[in-house]
Write a sequence for this structure.
């Protein structure tokens, strides 16, 4: 009986977690460092509605299920999932949050410019 009570308490606590905390927990569970994960969670909670966050979560879960390595979620995977949502604002806000939180996509390399001294 006590074991059942502890399990219920854990589920109740996670159900009461804020969207920011849930996003951060999900991201850290897939290998994103704690500080950037908290940052992304805060940014998305501020800029998206609960419905938009739920839609992003559904699409991210479906994307992970198709991933050859579903145990690891990269920022590229997260951006790709966001781009699959019908609401374009979600993809924009995810990209902005990644940029503000210093999470560069793995396939992204800033261009190098050579400047003449002349």
């Amino acid at each position: 009986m006590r074991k059942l009570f502890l399990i219920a308490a854990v589920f109740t606590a996670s159900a009461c977690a804020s969207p920011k905390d849930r996003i951060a927990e999900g991201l850290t569970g897939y290998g994103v460092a704690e500080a950037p994960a908290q940052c992304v969670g805060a940014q998305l909670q501020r800029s998206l509605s609960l419905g938009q966050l739920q839609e992003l979560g559904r699409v991210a879960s479906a994307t992970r299920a198709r991933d050859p390595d579903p145990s690891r979620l990269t920022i590229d995977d997260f951006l790709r999932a966001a781009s699959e949502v019908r609401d374009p604002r979600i993809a924009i806000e995810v990209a902005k949050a990644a940029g503000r939180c210093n999470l560069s996509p793995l396939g992204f390399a800033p261009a190098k410019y050579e400047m003449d001294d002349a």
